Queue: 3 jobs
Job 1
Amino acid sequence: MSANDDLFARAQRVIPGGVDSPVRAYGSVGGTPRFLVSAEGAYVTDADGRRYVDLVASWGPALLGHAHPEVVEAVVAAARRGLSFGAPTPAEAELAEEIAARVPGVEKLRLVSTGTEATMTAIRLARGATGRDLLVKFAGHYHGHSDGLLAAAGSGLATFALPGSAGVPDAVAAQTLVVPYNDREALEAAFAAHPGRIAAVITEAAAANMGVVPPASGFTTFLADLCRRDGALLISDEVLTGFRAAAGGYAQVLREAGEQVVPDLVTFGKVIGGGMPVAAVGGRADVMDLLAPTGPVYQAGTLSGNPVAVAAGLATLRLADDAVYTRLAAASAALSEAVGSALTDAGVPHVIQRAGTLFSVFFGADVAGGVPDYATAQRQDAAAYRRFFHAMLGAGVSLPPSAYEAWFVTAAHDEAVLAEITAALPAAARAAATP
Ligand code: PMP
């Protein structure tokens, strides 16, 4: 038995499924999850001492690569000053300023610890601001695991083909309307059916939890107009895309495409904590000021704005300069091209979809024409991905253990790292082609 097998057996005795977050369990690709003991740059090392090129990047946060020395130094320095005070600290406003400066429309922010809390708070704020109850979300979008957001959600629910979650009261689920992504008519129909009753539409700025599915040209503008006309708020979830799809998040990608969409509220996570638990909800000052203690919408957290976590986020954002995004864009382009040509050479039908520097690969003839929504994403060939995943893992490249996730590069994925991945591709593509 390998150390990974031993650790997995032991973990399963005390932790449900042996993992603290479902997709880590390799449930859809099969096999024993790798128990990681360290990570540096573009690499992770497991309990058996095997080193892998990492394309998970902690599911997004590791923008600069793992354990960037200056980020680690900032964390150690903050830890020496104290782990948690339960009082305001100077660095919280600094991090809020760094985020606000990068995203138009974000006038005020509140820091929380997880993306789940950020979206949960955004929804409560939208309901408080509008006095309405209904929420619209898109099928295949994932916004964390709060009750109202688990209907037709992406990420682990997509991976395990779950329509929703047990334990969510019907009365709560009934407040969420689920609409197909990129479908203008369905969205209009939802507003027409419930005029003046929708508090908010929440959307991933670009969907990346059912594989990467960017909004169709003009769709986000259409969505924003519809919300404004009805008096509903638009919540843009940039937990995954924020400061990763581009320096200014997916909002910047949209702006560069000529779409000036300023959401009422925006949620952030992942990169803004640089690998530590920091997330945020931000947006219009008048809406944000509805939060306690200035307003009637309650939200709180013992560890919110934790000084050690904030130090990691601040260091990460300050280090994320133009050179980092240039590197990220180059790595993303080179890798997606190499994957595409290896799959084409092996005769594997596929499509690669992009949202800024984010991309993912859908396998299968049924999706090769493009994936605009969740119903199409569900027609991908998950078995081909499984074979590809294991061939890559065997060759020392760790991909997301699910066909429904983005592939994450970091600024540490340089030419040499990319060459290592590229060398593994032809055999993995042949494995994908061979049922
Ligand atoms: N929103 C989006 C778009 C996400 O990708 C995620 C996490 N993958 C979340 C919210 C939830 O964040 P967390 O896991 O930190 O609760």
Job 2
Amino acid sequence: MDLIRRVLDGASLSKTEWLSLICDEEAYPDIALHELASSIRDKVYGRRVFLRALVEFTSYCRNDCYYCGLRRSNGLAERYRLTPDEILSACSDGYAAGFRTFVLQGGEDAYWRDDRLVPLVRMIKQSCPEAAITLSVGERSRESYRALREAGADRYLLRHETADSVHYSLLHPADMSFGNRIGCLRTLKELGYQTGAGMMIGSPHSSAETLASDMVFLQSLKPEMVGIGPFIPHRDTPFGSERMGSVELTLRIISLVRIALPSALIPSTTALATASSDGQIAGLDAGANVIMPNITPVRERKKYLLYDGKKITGEEDGYNLAGIMERLSLAGYEGTLERGDFISVAASQHSW
Ligand code: 5AD
């Protein structure tokens, strides 16, 4: 476990070293990584799992990512856009239920220019003063990120998708650039957002090497949040016949990310819950500590389809809080509605 020891002592590993941590299952068995990652999570955050209320507020997207069901070329996708009133009332209801983080997630929808989104952020902050707002609306200009931050947005999710630029170009059309994506992430950090990066596991053309690049990148960016889920094909995309990503590998990478970034906020994602019936708890057991119950009005939830088979059973339902808390507690966790901001702890301050 010498490589692990070095990561825990705060060393940045090379790509080759990450490659052996990813691939050498004999030296680093899944179970050992999950246990270590869990114990690190417990030391930083305890057994608490932070609940974030998710509002999928627009399914329009100008981008054409080959993997995503919301891509603009998917003429079969049913598009919707919540009105500001609908978004506000979803948040107010969520606030009354106790939620203290709202995640506004959507495609890159030209309608939501700054002159619409900035006032919306302000209004949510006004009616939900103690809540954190997380935005997840893709690539925008520095000025836009700044205006949104000044309006009160606290956090921003923008997965880097892959840290290998060649791989990036195989997942996206030529009008999307890896450099711009990474630039956006650095800008978000500079502006003081708690910033979330992340990647799909097992996306087409991915490999242990691309994952090793992801680990090197995450160790250098040090995002406060990291979203990791298996790739799941969507039938009406160019990757519709590709294979789903492995749940086991996803869990292994979650553990490695927890070990590399002990105080990161790591969601156990909907994609993981969709790929495997006990995926959400398995994600927590591998070191994750966030879940994102959905408070999007149910009639639209079925239209926000990034991949096939999205779980819309009720278990993910933000309106069924008691059920969620019960399931977490049966698995040995304590669901909490508090803001759950990032805790900054240098690895060296702890003896893992
Ligand atoms: N499978 C899994 N995750 C996906 N995403 C988009 N499409 C898929 C898919 N087919 C993820 C991307 C994106 C986030 C919103 O959802 O990582 O950043």
Job 3
Amino acid sequence: TVYDCPLLELPRVENRAGNLTVLQPGWNCPFDVPRVYYLYDVPGGSTRGGHAHKNLRQLIVAAGGSFEVLLDDGRNRRSVFLNRPYYALALYPGIWRELHNFSSGSVCLVLASERYEEVDYIRDYKAFASWKALHRAEGSSDGA
Ligand code: TYD
């Protein structure tokens, strides 16, 4: 469910010359990371996301600025505000997500457990709701 998507506090190496945060698979990142991407230059008022994934796991970090992540598991909704580079929101399969309210100059960094595959996306909310209902009926243990 949306409540199984933890907000991970990441280690900070702080120094007079600035701070550094590490994400390392096998240590504080719960999956291998064959792909990293980032959203930037997002115009004010834009919404990103608007889809779910069947298998992909992700960590989302506000590497700069802030934005809001709306999570939906078909039953529950939860909103998470990210505004510090030392927090990562973990997103597991079967969670519909939308990103809103990007601050000017913000950067949304995403670590992904798989390479890009369009077939892993569910981009239609009704299709997502049906997919969730089917998985519930099958007693799937996808954590959502
Ligand atoms: P999409 O995942 O829909 O963006 P968002 O959810 O942030 O709004 O991706 C936007 C476009 O970029 C879409 O045409 C697919 C392409 N894309 C890739 O080619 N590779 C990638 O790794 C990602 C994430 C997107």
